[in-house]
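Let's do one together. I've listed all components of the complex below, 850 residues spread over two lines.
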Amino acid sequence: MTDSSARSADPVVDMRGITVEFPGVRALSDVDFQLFPGEVHALMGENGAGKSTLIKALTGVHRPTSGEIRLHGEPVEFTAPVRAQNAGISTVYQEVNLCPNLSVAENILLGREPRRLGAIDVRACRTRAARLLDRIGLSIDPGSALGSHPIAVQQLVAIARALAVDARVLVLDEPTSSLDTDEVAELFRIMRVLRDEGVAILFVSHFLEQVYEIADRMTVLRNGALVGEYLPDRTGRLELVSVMLGRELGTLEEVERRSGGRDPGTAPVLTARGLGRAGAIAPFDLEIHAGEVVGLAGLLGSGRTEMVRLLFGADRASTGTLGVDGRTVRPRGPRSMIARGVALCSEDRKAEGVVADLTVRDNLTLALQAARGWMRPVPRRVADALVNEYIEKLDIRPADPGALMSALSGGNQQKVLLARWLITRPRLLILDEPTRGIDVGAKVQIQKVVADLAAEGMAVLFVSAELEEVVRVSDRVVVLRDRRKVTELAGDGVTVDKVMSAIAAHGDQDSAVAS
Amino acid sequence: MIRHHLFWPVAALVVLLVVNTVFNPSFLEIELQDGHLYGGVIGILRNGAPTLLIAVGMTLVIATRGIDLSVGAVAAIAGAIACTWIASGGDALTAMLLALCVCVLLGLWNGFLVSVLGIQPIIATLVLMTAGRGGAMLITEGQIITVDDPLYRQIGAGFLVLPIAILISLSVLLAVAALTRGTALGMLVESVGTNPRASRLAGVSSRTIVWTVYVFAGLCAGVAGLMISSNVNAADANNAGLWIEMDAILAVVIGGTSLAGGRYSLAGTLVGALVIQTLTTTVYSIGVPPDAILVFKAVVVIAVCLLQSPRTSELFGSRRRAGPARTRTPEVSAV
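Okay, and this is what the predicted structure of the assembly comes out as:
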């Protein structure tokens, strides 16, 4: 797979001794990085290792404090992202940064619209967008609003946008975190085509399997410093993980638990009977008991998020009833469910979790404060004690309660959001994709926290697109398909294969799969 | 020091005061007459009281990512109601209470449109901005109602060593500061303004908070309206509080509170309101032709806002301010 002739060519991008400092933080120190034409180069590292900072230094978002960037051998200094873009460096960020209210075509060509007589040539715009969409094999109407498509499609549109300029360097920052298996395969096909055309691709992903599948070379960062460069076919996965984490693998042992030790006599913490919402999820039954971890599996768009939003009262149900401790409740918004001890950690971190302008302290205590009411502020001393406790427990970096939330990396933000709910001591904790886009170490950490919480008697509803993860942490797995609950697997029935075949089964095979 | 968010507004204020002193050497003198303080600066405080008061209400509204364009019209309504009541033989206290009750109702209306019906604030309050003056005209039947009531006169023109109007505005400012920063209210307001969806999902009663800030803004506008009409002993439905919403919004923005919502600074609003009022006074004292006053004001405001922008401070300061944290890039989020 690796094209050895590529190595002999001159690098497209040559970064030397890159150091990036923010007030009080050194995000990158003295990092060298080279990117050759016609290669897929994976950038690896834990949350906060400096991957995003390196990318942003390359794309002109941050200006390095010291160091040199050469593009095609010429030293360059990008003062703004648009300069980098004009120089042929295109970037697709982890979170889709497009305008949902504009059409697909407009998003793809935004700022580069074909013009005629000074006005935007709408027809040429559509045709060109259609051609670009075609090139990446996406068959959607270029005239439709971007927001009407699922996140995964939006992600592919972002890539089409990156291709709209004649990019020589394509930076993909976690492009796969919201894609399902088929879509990832599709993305990789596109990446290979581009690579063979000589495009240099910088690829960041937390999924080891994907990196091993697509990457020709891997560079590992740790704590803002360069660890080394590795070749996938000469470096084992375990070795790679251990250099990423900087420790031996003994600490990464499996999260082992199969409690099943719940008391059948007590009423379930949460009961849903025929609960449903027209257009979002078909009516379903569900029971969750104290001390139990229930997994929720299904493909993207199968109704996972819709289901948990109903349970949390974030959306209004159109049919059925919801019960807490056996008593029927009519939720009037999240507040009323929070008061009954239910917590939801949303999958959409940026839009529904992070309050970017506030400090880590305020973000962490937000739900607790909201539950206490504005008149009883959480005393500063108590807040700091709580915040420090969870900063230590979940290894949140930087360990500064006064840091602005926007200064934290994605994975650390996720930990703060998890802590936000943990300090409210909920009886049912709903985690929607809590490990998306975060590194192996933090992932295991979160899975362990979940196991511990359940052992202490908390009920947990765990939603994840990664089947291995769902199967590992859950006592029971509820499977969704096409916005419908299709089956529930328990005990020995919980294996990745069974969950997978339940997801994949056609409607008429439902009964055959149910255990 | 140059990095402090109040540096440029305070610098602008100092420059304006210096300009005034150059044109009028007795500008900074303060005299004590009959137990009252008089002087150029005292005049600024007195005339700036309504703007400051409205700006305090506006600060909270803007912090929730909203805006209230109707404050000028609400101020006119308050004056119209109070003066009409007094002119028809009612007593001043009842008149003021009645006016403020109506202003609270108007605030409830604005808050209802924004927080319950989800109408964009600029449109929702535009309704009352245009309809409000019509309402005030109906109350005064198109006349300028003049009154002569010693009690009513106090609120806008009275003195307790300092002008009563500025004492009211400053007390409200301090009370709001104590209330929002002493409790969790300020943090919750900022949270709702920064990310309304996340706040709702965290259990913050966003609707109540947003609704309340519009009611409070209405109340502030009402008191300001009473000050304005009391100061001239008359209710002028057409001109009372005209453009004061712009002054108030500018005061808030000059004070460093972002129109995108989130973090707010009441101290900044105080400085901002003083800058605006001093500017108005300066314009008159240096003899800018009245026709050009608004243009002149606009130029100064643009200058202050430019100086505050992160990009300018990058040029002035040797290094980028607070890194990625505080710079507000106009990023588009995928919702």
